[in-house]
Each structure stands twice: as C-alpha cells, then as structure tokens.
Amino acid sequence: MAYLWKLITLLVIFFSAKEVAARTKLYSDNEQNGICKLMVDTQGYLCEEHKVTTEDGYVLSMQRIPKGRSGETADRPPVLLQHGLLMDGISWLLNSPNESLAFILADNGYDVWIGNTRGTNYSRGHTSLTPDDSTYWDWSWDELAAYDLPATFQYVHEQSGQKLHYVGHSLGTLTAFASFSQDKMLNMLRSAALLSPIAYLGQMSSFLARSAADIFLAEELEWLGLNEFNPRGEAVVGLLEVICQNPNNNCSDLMTSFTGKNCCVNSSATDIFLQHEPQPTATKNMIHLAQMIRGGKIAMYDYGSTEENNKHYNQPTPPEYKMASIPANVPLFLSNGGQDLLSDVKDVQTLLDSLDDHDRDKLVVQFTADYAHADYVFAVNAKQVVYDPLMAFFKLH
Ligand SMILES: *[C@@H]1O[C@H](CO)[C@@H](O)[C@H](O)[C@H]1NC(C)=O
Ligand SMILES: *[C@@H]1O[C@H](CO)[C@@H](O)[C@H](O)[C@H]1NC(C)=O
Ligand SMILES: *[C@@H]1O[C@H](CO)[C@@H](O)[C@H](O)[C@H]1NC(C)=O
Ligand SMILES: *[C@@H]1O[C@H](CO)[C@@H](O)[C@H](O)[C@H]1NC(C)=O
C-alpha cells in the first residue's frame, strides 16, 4: 500500500516538474515594492527598507519600524523578529496594528527590525547566484543558523549600537537554539522570546507533516531536480492532493491539519494571509526537517552516507546541536500551545529537560492550553495572552 502511494506521488511530481521555469518573474527584488510600502506605510507607521548580505552571499531584506504611532523615537532597545518556515516578515504585520506584534512593539517604544529568510519573496538576491541556479538552494536551516541569523543580528547591533532582544517563531526558534548552543551572538543579545519553540521534532503529531516525512516527499522533489520547495508550485500542490487522498488525512482544512486547531485566528483574515503566504524554501531544508521528524535528534544535515558525512563534517554522522550547551544565564522566554501539532508538547518537554540546569530566574515558560502554531502570530487575542507577558519579560532584561 505504502508502495502504491509512493508510486503515485512520483508520477504526480514528474508531470508537474515542468512548472519551474516560468515562475521566477513573480518575485520582486524592488525596494519600491517592498514590505514597508505594502504592509507598514499603509498603517501610518514610518518604515525603512534595509539590505544585509550574508557571509555566503545572500542578500536579505530587513524592515525597520523606528517609531510607533505617537511619532516619538523609540526609547527602548532594538527587537529582531524572525519568522517561521514557509513564511516571511509579513507574518508579523498581517493583523491590525493593535493585534500584530511588530506594530505593538513599535507602539511600546521598541526599535523594531524584521528579518526575511533567504529564498522568500523579498530576499531573493545573491552576490553571484540567482534563484534559477540549483546551488542557490543548496542550504538547510544549518546555514540559516550559521549565516542568516548572525548577519541580521550583527547588522541590527551595528545600526543601533545596542544589544537586542530577539523574537523567533517556529523555525525562527530552531535557528536561534542552534546558534545559541554554539555560543554565537550571545554578546549581542539581551534576551530571547521563542514562540512555538522547535528543537526536537521526534514526537511531532501533525499527521500531514509526518506523512510527508514518511513518504520522503522532499527527497523525491530533490531527486527530480526541484531544489526550490515552492508551496504554491504545481509539484507541491499536486503532492498534497495525493497525500490528502489517503483516508487517514483529513484535508478539509489544510491549515488545521498541518498546524493544529488555532483557537483565535480571525477566519476572515485568511484571505489576506493567503495573498502573502506561504513562501518558498529550499527542498534541502525540508529534507533536513524530515530527518529530524524521522530521527528525533537535533543534528546537522545528514548527507546519507558515512563517506559524504565524513567529507562535510570529518565524522561519519552529522554533529548534534547540544541544547544543554546554551549558557545557563541567557534570558529565555518560551511559549508553547497545547493544540500545536508542530511544536508538540512532548517535544517541548524534551527541550525543557535539556535546559534543566538553566538559571531558574532566566527561564520563563508559558503554556497556553488552547493555542496552536499559527495563534502565536495571528491570534486576535495574542497581545493579552502572549505579547504583554513577553514585553514584561523584555523590561526585566
Ligand atoms: C512578491 O512581491 C511582489 C511585489 O511586492 C508582489 O507583487 C508579489 O505578489 C509577491 N509574490 C509573492 C509570492 O509573495
Ligand atoms: C488600538 O489601541 C489604542 C490604544 O490602546 C486604542 O486607543 C484604539 O482605540 C485601538 N484601536 C482599535 C481599532 O481597536
Ligand atoms: C474533517 O474535518 C472537518 C473540519 O475540521 C470535519 O467537519 C469533518 O467531519 C472531518 N472529516 C473526517 C472524515 O474526519
Ligand atoms: C477580523 O477580520 C476582519 C477583516 O479583516 C475585520 O474587519 C475584523 O475587525 C477582524 N476581527 C477581529 C476580532 O480582529
């Protein structure tokens, strides 16, 4: 039976692989059409577009909101917001100003900086490659932790002359955990808030994501030469259709089957969401995440053979990131939801167990029973439930 599904998926991908060429024009590298103009100016906030180049040549866009609606210049420290998988910086700006974290922070006197991961609509530049080159997509979250995050941290630190607070959601927590565990960037950090924290994925209960990992979906895309994982592309959409025909998967509400039952997302805002998200990532990144689901470890990308791993790491298996190595005095605010299928409660517990020696007064853990994955960025009550406690935590550090 599993074999049959695999065969069908292969056929679907094969016949939709033709799509790749036509698409690239859709993406904009034009600052005049950037996130500031699209999502921030329209709400009456000042906004600056910035460009940051990573050590491996990717040109990332960042947006800065230097003042709130009062017009008074920020008197609190800079905050860097880093979005999750298949999202971009727009995810912090989709709700009304009283509901969206980026605006709320600006209105509370913080100097707000928004990051956009390589490969998403507003970060598709590179010093020598284009997204049409397969090597442009030769990265996973190892590189996001090693290059994107340090580049944006450093840039905000230099521009503001201050240490910063960090807010990550989902993949934006994984890259932070990985970097912090290697003692990176901590000299520039005041504190970090990690929403829907992801370090371990072994217990992940999203049936859809697990099915995709089990049938080696991402590996097949790569095998067929689709190095860019574009969730709006025919290949991925076709595959989803196949997965959804499996009677174990209920896809009547894709967002719910994937992320969990979000209690407090405004359903009439979904259309606006779908205009901007989801965004592409590297197929290799999806493979890396699937390896974590299947293997239960937080380790570097597995090249699949002793020989290849030796080439990259000088050891037969990929090096692990040791969560217990995050220095005990780093102020951390972790918030996870009881309905979150991606940041599963059991996996978060494994993470907390590994932080057992963390200074008690430096670790705040918030559990919200009715929150799922998307509530952390889109819930209409997220200000009261998560962002107010988060800002109270920032004030202490
Ligand atoms: C990318 O950005 C351009 C310019 O703002 C916009 O017109 C287009 O819809 C965006 N595409 C996606 C897939 O987000
Ligand atoms: C947003 O919050 C401000 C300050 O709390 C309040 O004055 C304003 O009425 C709110 N706006 C909306 C649309 O709810
Ligand atoms: C699928 O989910 C929808 C809404 O979440 C529900 O109404 C429906 O009964 C479910 N179908 C099955 C077969 O479980
Ligand atoms: C939900 O979204 C609609 C359309 O954007 C908006 O008019 C309404 O005020 C929103 N409701 C809440 C509670 O934010």
TrEMBL record:
Keywords from the UniProt entry: Hydrolase, Lipid degradation, Lipid metabolism, Signal
Active site residues per record: S170 (nucleophile), D340 (charge relay system), H373 (charge relay system)
Domain Partial AB-hydrolase lipase: 39-95
Record GO biological process: lipid catabolic process
A GO term for molecular function: hydrolase activity, acting on ester bonds
Family per similarity comment: Belongs to the AB hydrolase superfamily. Lipase family.
Protein name according to UniProt: Lipase
Signal peptide boundaries: 1-22
